[in-house]
């Protein structure tokens, strides 16, 4: 895929997230690895529903702006994930309704905020680790994600939103979609007796994905 095609794909996916209410105003940011030393990031303060492909930020792996507008202030945690995980080629950060609501709950399991009850959740993301609360843009978010970069595909930022990775931008977007739907189902099922997947069932799904 050419750089222009990557830019156009990012704009289209971002608009889809915005139109479905997964981000509002200037919230959320997306990025994709262009090559070994460059990433494409949404600009600071930009709405995911009104991006311009020509103004997307291109950074090197040291955070220097090579072209486009000033990047999102959260580009630092995007870089941290790319630097620590060579299999991470795209990142979606959203303030989608159900996942953000989940992030505001107290006493979540920090290792996995959603216990598996559908196979699709397991196959897409496996588990959802919780990152402690830090103000948006804090370098501590990057540090926390850097330490966990090789331990999962999805991270819930406490009182903030979600960070989801993927092998490419479509994969990251699909992972984010599945995760938001899983969070929605969890809220719908509150107060009900849920049949969770057993450890053996989860392992079977994980092994099929290897």
Automatic annotation (TrEMBL):
<dbReference type="InterPro" id="IPR050013">
    <property type="entry name" value="OtnC"/>
</dbReference>
<dbReference type="GO" id="GO:0005829">
    <property type="term" value="C:cytosol"/>
</dbReference>
<keyword id="KW-0456">Lyase</keyword>
<keyword id="KW-0862">Zinc</keyword>
<dbReference type="GO" id="GO:0019323">
    <property type="term" value="P:pentose catabolic process"/>
</dbReference>
<dbReference type="InterPro" id="IPR001303">
    <property type="entry name" value="Aldolase_II/adducin_N"/>
</dbReference>
<keyword id="KW-0479">Metal-binding</keyword>
<keyword id="KW-0119">Carbohydrate metabolism</keyword>
<dbReference type="Pfam" id="PF00596">
    <property type="entry name" value="Aldolase_II"/>
</dbReference>
<dbReference type="GO" id="GO:0046872">
    <property type="term" value="F:metal ion binding"/>
</dbReference>
<dbReference type="InterPro" id="IPR050197">
    <property type="entry name" value="Aldolase_class_II_sugar_metab"/>
</dbReference>
<comment type="similarity">
    <text>Belongs to the aldolase class II family. AraD/FucA subfamily.</text>
</comment>
<comment type="function">
    <text>Catalyzes the decarboxylation of 3-oxo-tetronate 4-phosphate to dihydroxyacetone phosphate (DHAP) and CO(2).</text>
</comment>
<dbReference type="GO" id="GO:0016832">
    <property type="term" value="F:aldehyde-lyase activity"/>
</dbReference>
<dbReference type="InterPro" id="IPR036409">
    <property type="entry name" value="Aldolase_II/adducin_N_sf"/>
</dbReference>
<feature type="domain" description="Class II aldolase/adducin N-terminal">
    <location>
        <begin position="8"/>
        <end position="187"/>
    </location>
</feature>
<protein>
    <recommendedName>
        <fullName>3-oxo-tetronate 4-phosphate decarboxylase</fullName>
        <ecNumber>4.1.1.104</ecNumber>
    </recommendedName>
</protein>
